[in-house]
Automatic annotation (TrEMBL):
Similarity field: Belongs to the FAD-binding monooxygenase family.
Signal sequence residues: none
The FAD/NAD(P)-binding domain, residue ranges: 64-275
Keyword Nucleotide-binding attributed: no
Name of the protein this chain belongs to: NAD(P)/FAD-dependent oxidoreductase
Cofactors required: FAD
Length: 605
C-alpha cells in the first residue's frame, strides 16, 4: 500500500534542515576532481572484455556519411539516412559491435528502467514487440543489432575502432576521418553520436592500484572471473568476499544479483538512491495495443508529453516516471510558462516531500534491521539523483550475507589496501572489488577534446568554442564546420527517454543531408543563425539554480557546485523543441544550405 502523508509547514522546515545537513555531510571541496578516468595505468578498467578486435586492413576510401558512434544515436542516424536513400554510410564504433551503452553494460541484473515499449526505437519499423515491460539489457542490445541489420549498417561499419581526428578538406569539400586502426577515409558528411555517459570513471581513492584481489568496473563485467550471465548463476563467486562501491542506478540493479551468488557482499554506500516500485512483468502485444499501425510512435509521444510536463489526457505507460513527472521536470510547465513562481515552488515542495516520505516509508517497510533501514533512507529532493526502481534491492539487505557500510561521514571510502577497503578505520577484507561508480560526464567525443575537429581554415572546434562558448544552430551545426552534424544534448533537447530524443535528432540529420544532396549544397549555418539560437536559449532559460544548489552532490549538479552539468538545453522542453524543428525544416532549412564551390565552378563531384 502506498503511504502518502502530506507534510505540514513544521515538517517541511525540519526536512529542509535535514536535507541541508545531509548535503553538507557529503559535499567535498574537490567536486568532480575526486574522480579518476579509466585511462593510462587504469586503462584496464575500460578495456573491452567482450570482443577481441578483429585483424583487418586499414580503409582508405570514400563514403557519403561517416557516423561516429554505434550506439542507438549512430544506429538511428544510419537508419534514417537509409530511409532517405543514402548509400555509403560508415559507422565507426569503439566497441566490438553495435549497442553503445548496451554493448558495454552487461552486468548481472542489467535492465532498462524506462518502459521498453517507449525506450526501444523503431518498433513500428521492425515489427518488434518487447516481451517485458522493462527489458533485460541483452534484449535491448539485440534490438540495436536488429535495427542495424534491417538497414544494412554492418557491412561498412568499423568496430573496435576509435576516430582520432576529423578535418575538413576545403578543396574536396569533404571530411578526412582518421582512426586509431590506421584508417584514413573521406566522408562528405560526418554525424557525431558519441553519447553522454560512456567513459567509466573510478573514485580517486588512494591505493586502488594496491588491491591484490580481483577488480573491475560494472560496465566491463568480468564473466570469466564471476561465471554466469546477466541473468545470474555466478558460480565463480561462491564463497568469495565481494565489495561493491556505488549505489546509483547500476548498484541498485547489480547488488541483489551479487547477494544471490557471492559468499558475502559488502555494499559501500555514500548516498542512498531513491528506490521506487519496479513491478516488471511480461507484456503481450495486446497489452500495449501493438495490433494497430503506429502504436509505438503514439505511445512514445504520449510518454514524452507527460514527462515533459505537457498536458495529456491519457497516461499509456503509467509507471513511476509518469506518475512523478511533475517532480522530474522541477519547474515545468507552470514556471516555464510564466506562472506564479512562489505558489508553484510551495506546491512543488509539498508534493516533493510527500513523495520522498513515501519512499522513506518503503525502506522502513522492506528492511528488517532498523539501523540498516535508517542508513538506506534518502534525504534529498526527488530527482536530485537519478531515480532508481527495484523490488529486490531493499530485500537484499535482510540477508545475513549482505552488509551495508555507510561511508557518508568519511566522504566515501577512505583507502584501498592490498587486502580490501578501509572505512572509518576498519578494513573490510575482500577477494573481489567491483566499481559501480558511473561514468564521466561530457567526456566522450568532441566535447572531451579527445576527438579533435578541424574545420574551415584548420580552426579547431573547441578552440573556437573556448573563446566564445559553444556556438551552434539547434545544437546540430556550427559555422566554419560544414557538413558536420552533432547529436547530443548540447543546445538541443533532453528527456529521461533519451532514445526518443536521439531518434528525432537522427530524423533531422537525415533531412538536412538529403536536402543538401538534392541541392548540391553544403550544410553550414551563418554566425547570425548561431547568435539567434543562443539568444533564444538564454532568453527563456529557466532558473533551476535553486534546485541544484539545494541538492545532495552528484553528477546532476556538478558534484554539489550548484549548477546543472554542461551547457544548457532548449528551455521549453523536448515536445516544443521537436515542433520547432519540424517547422524549421518546412520553412527555413534552405537558409543553411549553401551551393558547393565545385557546383559554383561548374565542376562535378
Ligand atoms: P552513478 O554515477 O549514478 O553512481 C555512482 C555511485 O558511486 C554513487 O552511488 C556514488 O555515490 C558512488 N561513489 C562514487 N565515488 C565514491 C566513493 N569515493 N566512495 C563511495 N561511493 C562512491 O553511476 P551508475 O552507473 O549507477 O549510473 C549512471 C547512469 O547510468 C545513471 O544515472 C543512468 O542515467 C544510467 N543508468 C540507467 C539505467 C537504466 O535502467 N536506464 C541503469 C543503470 C544506469 P554518491 O551518490 O555519493 O556520489
Amino acid at each position: 500500500m502506498t503511504v502518502r502523508h502530506i507534510p505540514d509547514p513544521e515538517e517541511l522546515e525540519a526536512l529542509r534542515q535535514r536535507y541541508r545537513l545531509e548535503r553538507e555531510r557529503r559535499a567535498r571541496s574537490d567536486g568532480a576532481r575526486q574522480y579518476r578516468s579509466t585511462d593510462a595505468e587504469f586503462g584496464y578498467y575500460a578495456a573491452d572484455p567482450y570482443t577481441e578486435p578483429a585483424e583487418r586492413e586499414a580503409v582508405r576510401d570514400t563514403v557519403d556519411v561517416a557516423v561516429v558512434g554505434g550506439g542507438f544515436g549512430g544506429i538511428l542516424a544510419g537508419a534514417r539516412l537509409r530511409q532517405r536513400g543514402v548509400e555509403r554510410i560508415r559507422i565507426v564504433e569503439q566497441g566490438g559491435d553495435f549497442g553503445g551503452t548496451w554493448y558495454w553494460n552487461r552486468y548481472p541484473g542489467v535492465h532498462c528502467d524506462i518502459e521498453s515499449h517507449v525506450y526501444l526505437p523503431m518498433l513500428d519499423e521492425t515489427s518488434h514487440v518487447p516481451e517485458w515491460k522493462y527489458s533485460p539489457g541483452e534484449d535491448i542490445r539485440r534490438h540495436a543489432v536488429r535495427i542495424a541489420r534491417k538497414f544494412s549498417l554492418g557491412p561498412d561499419a568499423l568496430f573496435s575502432t576509435t576516430v582520432t581526428s576529423l578535418a575538413w578538406d576545403e578543396a574536396a569539400e569533404a571530411w578526412t576521418v582518421t582512426t586509431d586502426r590506421g584508417d584514413t577515409f573521406r566522408a562528405t558528411y560526418v554525424v557525431t553520436a558519441t553519447g553522454t555517459l560512456s567513459e567509466p570513471k573510478l573514485p580517486g581513492i588512494p591505493g586502488i592500484e594496491d588491491f591484490a584481489g580481483h577488480t573491475f568496473h560494472t560496465s566491463r563485467w568480468d564473466y570469466a572471473y564471476t561465471g554466469g550471465t546477466p541473468e545470474g548463476g555466478m558460480t565463480g563467486l561462491a564463497g568469495k568476499r565481494v565489495g561493491v562501491v556505488g549505489t546509483g542506478a547500476t548498484g541498485v540493479q547489480v547488488i541483489p544479483m551479487l547477494a544471490e551468488d557471492a559468499g558475502h557482499v559488502h555494499v559501500f554506500q555514500r548516498t542512498p538512491s531513491t528506490v521506487d516500485v519496479r513491478a516488471n512483468r511480461r507484456t503481450t502485444a495486446r497489452d500495449v495495443g501493438a495490433d494497430r499501425e503506429g502504436w509505438a510512435r503514439e505511445r512514445r509521444e504520449n510518454y514524452l508529453r507527460i514527462v515533459s510536463g505537457e498536458p495529456e489526457e491519457r497516461d499509456l505507460v503509467a509507471d513511476g516516471w509518469t506518475r512523478s513527472a511533475v517532480l522530474l521536470e522541477k519547474l515545468l510547465p507552470s514556471f516555464r510558462r510564466g506562472g506564479d513562481r512562489k505558489a508553484f515552488e510551495a506546491a512543488y515542495e509539498v508534493a516533493d516531500a510527500a513523495k520522498m516520505n513515501e519512499l522513506r516509508a518503503r525502506v522502513e517497510r522492506s528492511v528488517t534491521d532498523p539501523g540498516t533501514a535508517e542508513k538506506l533512507k534518502p534525504w534529498y529532493r526527488y530527482a536530485c539523483k537519478r531515480p532508481a526502481f527495484s523490488d529486490a534491492y531493499y530485500q537484499a539487505f535482510n540477508r545475513s550475507d549482505v552488509t551495508l557500510v555507510d561511508t557518508a561521514d568519511t566522504h566515501g571510502i577512505e583507502r584501498v589496501t592490498a587486502q580490501g577497503v578501509v572505512v572509518g578505520g576498519t578494513t573490510y577484507e575482500l577477494d573481489c572489488l567491483i566499481f559501480a561508480t558511473g561514468f564521466s560526464v561530457g567526456t566522450s567525443g568532441i566535447l572531451s577534446g579527445k576527438l579533435p575537429v578541424h574545420g574551415r581554415g584548420g580552426v579547431q572546434l573547441l578552440d573556437r568554442w573556448g573563446r566564445e562558448g559553444p556556438r551552434t544552430l539547434h545544437g546540430f551545426t556550427s559555422n566554419g564546420f560544414p557538413n558536420l552534424i552533432q547529436m547530443g544534448t548540447l543546445q538541443n533537447a533532453s528527456s529521461v527517454n533519451f532514445t526518443h530524443i536521439l531518434d528525432e535528432q537522427a530524423v533531422h540529420a537525415a533531412a538536412l543531408i538529403a536536402a543538401a544532396e538534392a541541392m548540391g549544397a553544403v550544410i553550414e549555418p551563418s554566425r547570425a543563425d548561431e547568435d539567434a539560437w543562443i539568444a533564444a536559449l538564454a532568453e527563456d532559460a529557466p532558473d533551476h539554480e535553486w534546485f541544484h544548489a539545494e541538492c545532495t552532490p552528484g553528477y546532476y549538479n556538478r558534484e554539489g557546485r550548484g549548477r546543472p552539468n554542461g551547457p544548457f538545453t532548449y528551455p521549453h522542453g523536448a515536445v516544443a523543441f521537436h515542433e520547432l524543428l519540424g517547422r524549421w525544416r518546412e520553412e527555413s532549412m534552405g537558409r543553411i544550405l549553401r551551393a558547393r564551390a565545385s557546383a559554383a565552378d561548374g565542376g562535378g563531384s
